[in-house]
Amino acid sequence: MVAARLMTTIALVAALGATAACGRRSDLDTPYGAAVQARKDAEKAGEPLPPEPQKPVEDKPFILDKLIQ
Q1: Which is the most buried residue in 35, 51, 62, 63, by most CB within 10 A?
Q2: Does 36 score more than 90 pLDDT?
Q3: Which of residues 20 and 31 earns the better pLDDT score?
């Protein structure tokens, strides 16, 4: 009984430790921003350039946007 509880605790601590460091700490990348950065990285590395990203259209507000802000 004690061994099972100890193994469960160890597994839980290991799972929390493995998931605690996932990801990176910064702002989210937009698809346009990621495409521009990929193009800059490819140009810097001398690789073939991906297609030129198109600027996104201006965001139109939606009636329900106020609920999630």
Answers
A1: 35
A2: yes
A3: 31
